[in-house]
Amino acid sequence: MESIENPATPTFAELGLAAPILATVEAAGYDTPTPIQAQAIPLVLKGRDVMGLAQTGTGKTAAFALPILHRLLDGPRRTRVLVLTPTRELCMQVEENFRRYAAVAGLDVVAVFGGVPYEPQEAALRAGVDVVVATPGRLLDHLEKGNADVELLEALVLDEADRMLDMGFAPQINRIVEQICTYRQTLLFSATMPPEVEALARKYLRRPVVVQVGRRNENTSTVTHAVYPVPRDRKSSLLAELLRKPEMDTVLVFTRTKPGADRVVRHLEREGITAVAMHGDKTQAQRMDALEQFRSGAVRVLVATDIAQRGLDISGITHVINYDVPEQAEDYVHRIGRTGRAAATGDAYTFMAPDEIAMVRLIERVTGQEIPRISVPGYDFGTLAAD
């Protein structure tokens, strides 16, 4: 594999995109591409297979969407591109990005995922679309029923590949890719590079160029980290107190369990703080509604389980709060990656109960940084014990 890492950044106008695509980008107010876009777009335009290593929030969707749409401007009208994503939320976001940039070219895009009615997806696929963005399970269902044909795909994108493998989608991915022509362009994007992802890349990519932004487990320098020592039964009260500060504008709170998320929301509502929960027990419609309320500012606090740690592209999150310490260091990295995105600044706070001290220390060892402790009078269990 060839490797490219952090070269000088050109402007979008210098990347070689077709005028209609470039006009769409400029109309959106973008002039300078992010590092992953600057590296990947010229390679994709050349037809190379690319393996992109970058955290969510670095602009990787546009890194493959823009050059793919450039290549679709000429050619037959049929399903030519497939993007596989691990979650419904990411599927919708990628489809939204493609649709925004594809409008100028008159190209059709459809999102295919579970938890919503089947028939509209079937009708769209049978009518013919240029780009399909899908989760593996629902797409495989459509393929087995003959609703879609991917044999003549020109480009396959495996987005958030590490997350798809973590969620056990390897068998579905293999069954889907077996139906696609081998003479295609394949792009793989991943936040991390475990052996499973490398094996997947070697299996499906041909002489890929590796483009990399940052390092595995590297926390963005735009995020300020802090740990708040607090007894478990005082976490809700501390959370409400912090949320009353004026700078706590758009806050994503992570809990370990689904009932825990609901309890936190109920407590905040009793305190007069608008909040909504998102987790696996919610229907797809409820999850979409929660996201829309959070994005629109109707509520300023979204309380979620780790279903939201990857794949959510919500701009302007000022704070991420780990109400419960994540059990895995990589989960910490993914959680705090929801803030401090696109060169903005953000804060990542972690509430640490006495029985979570070891987990915090493990996170510090894995990430290679010591996280400052902040003692709040009346909440720090060390101070309370002394009293």
Automatic annotation (TrEMBL):
GO molecular function, one term: hydrolase activity
Occurrences of domain Helicase ATP-binding (ranges): 41-211
Naturally occurring in which organism (per UniProt): Gemmatirosa kalamazoonensis
InterPro entries, sorted: DEAD/DEAH_box_helicase_dom, DEAD/DEAH_RhlB, DEAD_box_RNA_helicase, Helicase_ATP-bd, Helicase_C-like, P-loop_NTPase, RNA-helicase_DEAD-box_CS, RNA_helicase_DEAD_Q_motif
Pfam families linked to this entry: DEAD, Helicase_C
Gene3D superfamilies from the UniProt entry: P-loop containing nucleotide triphosphate hydrolases
GO biological process: response to temperature stimulus; ribosome assembly
Gene Ontology terms: cellular component: cytosol
Domain DEAD-box RNA helicase Q: 10-38
Protein name as catalogued: DEAD-box ATP-dependent RNA helicase RhpA
Record carries keyword Nuclease: no
Catalytic activity of the protein: ATP + H2O = ADP + phosphate + H(+)
Keyword field contains Signal: no
SUPFAM superfamilies (alphabetical): P-loop containing nucleoside triphosphate hydrolases
